[in-house]
Specification:
homodimer; alpha/beta; Rossmann fold; 15% strand
């Protein structure tokens, strides 16, 4: 079986939109999409609220209640029959997120087991046949086929094959 | 730089002796070392206390206060200068352990960063040049040079090169 390594944030979980929805409600302000293009959606929030946004991101519970990316459950359920799927998240920077991420994943994707999850610091450590990720820093050193999953912060990046949503992923992996 | 993948439990942390010390104090009984030889030190505790031991293992805090294996700090500090060291623990089976393990590691081995830690379910996912581990299930699929780190539960295993303690590790990696 070929191995597919799938990222969590901005790929199957949606922390960006969770944060934006909350911010609009609390502060009646919008984000600056242009500013995200440096490679981080966090940069889209106004300077005076950067600290606040970061604190909310780092707090226990934030990663426990995120929206699921459209169609990711159905497509990954099917992929899980045909491939060896691992969910790999660069999460050790945020120790409070670790348990939240495990619980979130096993709730929404109950067909995965704890054996298929890895919470790491640096994805150079893992190998496989395919990687789906929204960050170049993760794809960069990967030895297999790389797919950049489209996110607000990576829209201007060129030179990578893209997956824009999970319907497209199905077209590639389940055809 | 060559990459060395180092396990946590029974290699740099000592959950077994922590548990045995506590058990002797609380129950005035000893463990059966023979029974551990099936590949798990947990089996050394009497049947009637298996549940109790497992509950203590799974509780928040257990992995936060473990003894450090002798000489592991000094030797890994030096190895960290000469190799790309990753600490990889099969920990996602125990979600309560994740944050504890991160904090424990960064306290006792402050020269490591969060980038060098991975908490996973299945070590087939990782690759490198050397792996030091006390479990065959982890070493089995590894593509590099494997070292079985001696522990009470693996004393009868043959066919692997062993590292019996961190002074021996220094002899191999720092010569």
């Amino acid at each position: 079986m070929e191995r597919v390594i799938v990222d969590m944030d901005e790929v199957i979980a949606d922390p960006m939109n969770e944060m934006i929805d909350w911010y609009r409600k609390e502060y009646k302000q919008d984000v600056d999409w242009e500013k995200m293009l440096v490679g981080s959606w966090l940069k889209g929030f106004p300077d005076e609220h950067q600290q606040l946004i970061l604190e909310r991101l780092l707090a226990p519970g934030f990663f426990r209640n995120l929206p699921v990316m459209p169609d990711s459950v159905d497509v990954l359920k099917e992929m899980n029959q045909r491939y060896e799927v691992f969910i790999v998240s660069a999460a050790t920077e945020f120790p409070n997120s670790l348990k939240d991420k495990m619980e979130w994943l096993l709730e929404h994707f109950p067909f995965f087991t704890w054996k298929q999850i890895a919470l790491c610091g640096d994805k150079r450590l893992v190998y496989g046949d395919f990687m789906i990720d929204d960050h170049l820093k993760n794809l960069k050193y990967f030895n297999g086929k790389k797919y950049l999953f489209t996110a607000a912060h990576n829209l201007t990046i060129t030179g990578y094959d893209r997956i824009n949503n999970w319907k497209e992923a199905a077209g590639i992996f389940l055809k």
